[in-house]
Amino acid sequence: MKVKYFAWVRERIGKAEETVEPPADVRTVGDLIGWLSARGETYAYAFEKPKVIRAAIDHAHVKADAMIAGAREIAFFPPMTGG
Amino acid sequence: MTVAATIRIQEADFDVAQEIAGLSKDRTDIGAVVSFSGICRGSEQGEPIAALVLEHYPGMAEAEIERHADEALARWPLQGLTIIHRFGRIAPGENIVLVVTASAHRHAAFEAAEFLMDYLKTNAPFWKREESRRGTSWIEATDHDDAATARWTKP
């Protein structure tokens, strides 16, 4: 699945998007944050406060307990500051 | 009549007066037009800034704003709706966002415009970064904005 990062999450990880293939036991958005955090220091830094991180699956906001099965694109970003 | 919202996510500036006039042009069913313009301030918390730089999530920004436009059209009897949100570098004094609502009477137009702005602030995937003499920094979301959005949720 494709994963996208925005704002300071993107800056901390050092890339805007990538394709990942998490193992089958990574079932929810929260699991995916945990799995990504273990990939290296930059990820751990980006996700150091997981409760602050917002997520979207296929362009719709989701909570950390949302299942990721079937998702084409998952995005992680800080709270929004538009408007 | 089905009302179609006009939604634009763009880097270029826009003409507020032209957008407002365009919504009610050649119409006699509109009795009230409310507009909200969000404009870039020249300072943040007392510190002068050179510009705001807005990052957005292409695709989701459009989808999210469309969802809220549809909800506004379902909740209030609107005759017209325009939402424009800019991204990229925006200098002090320039437009950031515009919401224009048109209805037969004022209450629907006022309420729908406020509802849309509250949701845009907290749910539309845009992130502001400020440029100043001290460098650049991300603007933090405020609890105040979350509270403003929450009051529109039906009990």
From TrEMBL, chain A:
<dbReference type="Pfam" id="PF02597">
    <property type="entry name" value="ThiS"/>
</dbReference>
<protein>
    <submittedName>
        <fullName>Molybdopterin converting factor subunit 1</fullName>
    </submittedName>
</protein>
<dbReference type="InterPro" id="IPR012675">
    <property type="entry name" value="Beta-grasp_dom_sf"/>
</dbReference>
<dbReference type="InterPro" id="IPR016155">
    <property type="entry name" value="Mopterin_synth/thiamin_S_b"/>
</dbReference>
<dbReference type="InterPro" id="IPR003749">
    <property type="entry name" value="ThiS/MoaD-like"/>
</dbReference>
From TrEMBL, chain B:
<comment type="function">
    <text>Converts molybdopterin precursor Z into molybdopterin. This requires the incorporation of two sulfur atoms into precursor Z to generate a dithiolene group. The sulfur is provided by MoaD.</text>
</comment>
<comment type="pathway">
    <text>Cofactor biosynthesis; molybdopterin biosynthesis.</text>
</comment>
<comment type="similarity">
    <text>Belongs to the MoaE family.</text>
</comment>
<dbReference type="InterPro" id="IPR003448">
    <property type="entry name" value="Mopterin_biosynth_MoaE"/>
</dbReference>
<protein>
    <recommendedName>
        <fullName>Molybdopterin synthase catalytic subunit</fullName>
        <ecNumber>2.8.1.12</ecNumber>
    </recommendedName>
</protein>
<keyword id="KW-0501">Molybdenum cofactor biosynthesis</keyword>
<dbReference type="Pfam" id="PF02391">
    <property type="entry name" value="MoaE"/>
</dbReference>
<comment type="subunit">
    <text>Heterotetramer of 2 MoaD subunits and 2 MoaE subunits. Also stable as homodimer. The enzyme changes between these two forms during catalysis.</text>
</comment>
<dbReference type="InterPro" id="IPR036563">
    <property type="entry name" value="MoaE_sf"/>
</dbReference>
